[in-house]
Design goal:
By secondary structure, the protein is an alpha/beta fold. Helix content is about 40%, strand content about 15%. Residues about 120-130 have low confidence and may be disordered.
């Protein structure tokens, strides 16, 4: 007889129901009383199926126990393999179509944000090619468009995101690239979706009209009300940027109705009032959605978030996530994008071998046309994967995927949250630990706590408003952070 062990299963409760999150497959399923009893028994020690039927038969009936054990085996919640055994390492067998190309049209900015990885001591220095041009040329931008259309392969739509520096400092090339992309896409029978990130300082009326008319998705980098925005997002003379950007943002929101406008907030040790920031950005400025990201920086920097800060951040996220749940149960919109994005991953059963699409479905282009893992590594020769002219170096890409697979991160092997995290951001790891291969151990507890919260929300929605989750059936979101 086969001795059964409990496999990697994370349990949680929501709306009076018990659920299991099966780690290897990232599957979520409800647990009835018999399944819960079987799992409780196997948590104590491994058992044979006959022993389980004997122990639990009086409560549930031997046939019910046997059927439940078979069901749990079928979904691999229980099995003969011990959870400590390493799962097989599976790499992509064919080239993955490029979903999003982030085009850094400039590495210059008119702000001097204290925490910016582009200009601070955390800047990744190019060790191969020397200094990058400050602005992308029109010729390079066109080559980037051709690269995006070519590498998107069979995908009907190519997604291009313009980035910086401050993106709008190279607005003429951005405009030219969009016009060129429209023409080229029509010639090859594709569509192109455009988006950009901006600090909003250069949102003139003509720029706003262009973005609205061209249906360009816009994300505004802003950190909240004036006192928080002006702590770090300042001009070179130290003057805060809020008074300048607030009316420009309102003008954009009033004119640009073709796409939802989102805000992206960088959280630091000094700016962790998530609820207050969210209220201001949605209720006072009028953003459709707000996403929050802890600052990427060395642990020695004054604005780095310490352990206690992550605990506080988690409590703030949980409070806002509770609001999201209540709104979703009533089919009302709530703009906390962090929980929405995690729900999408849970719903689609993402058991990620890699933390994000960097180097696979998402790549970044530097101002000289070099292609890197993502926009944060654009211009770093050590993280180069090719160029927009020569294409992707497949050997280098394959070597990267092999070295960065979740199976190579020993510290992650026993973590139940690895299907969502997969070790965390490569840029964060490089900044904190000096290597993209390292998992981000400094926020493991934060990730586990946040994933558990999102599982609870998912379970509540699956129980009380399952129709809400249908929006994630075919959702596809691979945007830069």
């Amino acid at each position: 007889m086969t001795t059964l062990s409990l496999q990697e299963l994370h349990r949680f409760e929501a709306s009076g129901r018990r659920f299991g999150y099966l780690v290897p497959s990232a599957a979520v399923f409800a647990l009835d009383d018999c399944a819960t009893a079987v799992i409780d028994a196997l948590e104590c020690r491994p058992r044979e199926a006959a022993e389980l039927a004997h122990e639990l038969g009086a409560r549930f009936g031997p046939e019910t126990v046997a059927e439940t054990v078979a069901d749990l085996q079928r979904v691999r919640a229980v099995g003969a393999r011990t959870p400590s055994q390493k799962p097989p390492k599976i790499l992509p067998l064919t080239v993955v179509p490029l979903q999003t190309l982030v085009v850094n049209v400039t590495n210059q900015c008119n702000l001097s944000c204290t925490y910016c990885y582009e200009y601070g001591e955390d800047k990744i220095v190019d060790t191969e090619n020397g200094k990058q041009p400050k602005f992308m040329s029109e010729e390079t931008a066109r080559a980037a468009v051709d690269f995006a259309l070519r590498e998107s392969q069979s995908n009907k739509t190519a997604h291009i995101t313009f980035f910086g520096g401050e993106t709008l400092m190279n607005f003429p090339v951005l405009k030219s690239a969009i016009a060129y992309a429209r023409r080229r896409a029509a010639e090859v029978g594709k569509e192109v979706d455009f988006s950009l990130t901006t600090n909003a300082t250069l949102l003139r009326p003509d720029v706003i009209d262009f973005l609205a008319d061209e249906r360009v998705g816009v994300t505004i980098s802003i950190d909240g009300p004036q006192d928080l925005q002006d702590k770090f997002r300042v001009f070179s003379n130290g003057k805060g940027s809020y008074e300048l950007v607030a009316p420009k943002i309102k003008a954009l929101l009033a004119r640009h109705k073709t796409r939802p406008i989102g805000a992206r907030v960088t959280l630091t040790r000094q700016t962790l009032d998530v609820t207050r920031i969210y209220r201001h950005l949605t209720e006072e400025l009028g953003f459709w959605e707000v996403g929050f990201a802890p600052v990427t920086t060395s642990s020695t920097r004054d604005h780095a978030i310490a352990d206690a800060g992550f605990d506080h951040l988690l409590s703030q996220f949980r409070a806002l996530a509770g609001e999201f749940l209540e709104a979703s149960l009533q089919n009302r919109h709530h703009g906390f994008s962090n929980v929405r994005e995690t729900l999408q991953e849970i719903h689609q059963g993402h058991a990620k071998a890699y933390p994000c699409g960097a180097g696979i479905g998402l790549m970044g282009v530097a101002t000289d046309g070099d292609v890197a893992l993502c926009h944060r590594f654009a211009g770093s020769g050590d993280h180069k994967l090719g160029s927009v002219v020569d294409g992707v170096d497949r050997e280098r890409q394959s070597a990267f995927l092999d070295a960065h697979h979740i199976n190579e991160k020993t510290e992650c092997q026993t973590c139940w949250a690895r299907p969502i995290c997969a070790g965390g951001c490569y840029h964060e790891a490089h900044t904190r630990y000096g290597s993209t291969n390292r998992p981000n151990l400094h926020y493991c507890e934060w990730i586990r706590g946040w994933t558990h919260t999102c599982l609870e929300i998912y379970g509540a929605l699956a129980t009380r408003n399952p129709v809400f989750l249908q929006q994630f059936d075919d959702a596809d979101d691979l945007r830069p952070a």
